[in-house]
């Protein structure tokens, strides 16, 4: 591998670009870089600049310098920037779709969903800007008045993952920016050009220098750069979307410096299919919820809990739905790396060896980064798959005979991000929804559900804090001022 004029050359001598960080709206090349490969083909796509401690400090200083002016920019001007950014992302759709397909192996439908929702988030937040308001409460003392102001934190750190890079990247920053904060977006090493697409779209829309800076780093530098950023007194709040294991590390670092943090972490989403459910609907929704993007979604359906009276009929319908989602002979779903395939194969092998049976698919056929959907029946405690998030195209089918048993099984997990209930009885659906320990429960809809009008976040080991409809409140704090009349 050789580097010439900012370009690497692959084994065939073909130039491969090295893309820069972005600080103060300017390209920021670095001494080191890291390669980014296509998970679908293994091809070297490009190199991306890798931040050092000095580069991180430059981003911190830039964001800190920009925050006072951005804080006081009128809401109407922020609104116009966000709306224009949405238009720019729409106009760059072909380019941005290619970044996502190349870097993450995303299918065309998943890429379209990402870009559609990312633009919608921008427009939705633009419309909410004018809703920010404080209050004038009645005080306990005569002749004394009070104001309660809503103020931004200052500079925030946003750490977004690769699996839905436009949705999760936009939401990691846009609510904070709307509230008057400035931000550093730390890009995932698997999809840094997707993050670049977000940042450059906002900058092309008129976002002032320093309001949003982009960092990325080599995997081996993750611990040192992340710790340095979180420990900096310039950073006032953090948000992280990713695995629970890494989320615990982020939370610990924030705890040591007494910084608030918003975490959206892993999941083991259950879908309860009751005896009165529309089984055709349930089978289709569970297939899409289980296997979209190869199951690499934090809300993916991992456990389907069936009432025993309809179990056999549902299983037949679900096998057909799964086969229709990924037909035999079609290109298998692409996982981000071969480790994901190996993990799913290991979980399934352990389950089968301990008594589970395969209803659909053949996990042994998974190869490299590609794996077809697998449905397993009879997953029980003692099998690694019972509690472990597969984060792949694997779903377990289980049977119960009562609501109490269904709720106990649904809640027998450390996670609590999303869930589903399929029933024609709305009162039963609502009763079950109230009993499920989850940030969201979708009645007669799949577990994968995200929209701008609703809060989004989890409980238990799926994290805390909320993106979405109440996201602006997450990025403001109150200041009380009293005065004598």
Explain what this protein looks like in three dimensions:
By secondary structure, the chain is of the alpha/beta class. 39% of the residues lie in helices and 23% in strands. Strand 19 (419-422), helix 14 (426-435) and strand 20 (441-443) form a beta-alpha-beta unit. 48% of the residues are buried.
Rg, alpha carbons: 24 Å
Report the end-to-end length measured between terminal Cα atoms: 73 Å
Number of strands: 24
Sheet with most strands: strand arrangement: 16-17-18-15-14-19-20
Low-confidence stretches: 1-5
Helical segment count: 15
User: What fraction of residues sit in β-strands?
Assistant: 15-25%
* Helix proportion: 25-40%
Morphology: globular
Mean pLDDT: 95
Q: Quickly give the structural class.
A: alpha/beta
Q: Biggest β-sheet: count, sense, barrel?
A: 7 strands, mixed
Itemize the secondary structure elements and their pairings.
Layout lengths: L1 E3 L2 E3 L5 E5 L1 E3 L2 E3 L3 E6 L6 E7 L2 H20 L2 H17 L1 H12 L3 H21 L15 E9 L2 E5 L5 H14 L3 E5 L5 H13 L7 E4 L6 H10 L3 E7 L2 H13 L4 E4 L4 E5 L5 H13 L9 E7 L3 H15 L12 H16 L3 E4 L13 E4 L6 H4 L6 E7 L2 H9 L7 E4 L3 H10 L5 E3 L11 E2 L6 E2 L2 E2 L2 H4 L1 E9 L1
Helix pairs in contact: 1-7, 2-4, 2-6, 3-4, 3-6, 4-5, 7-8, 9-10
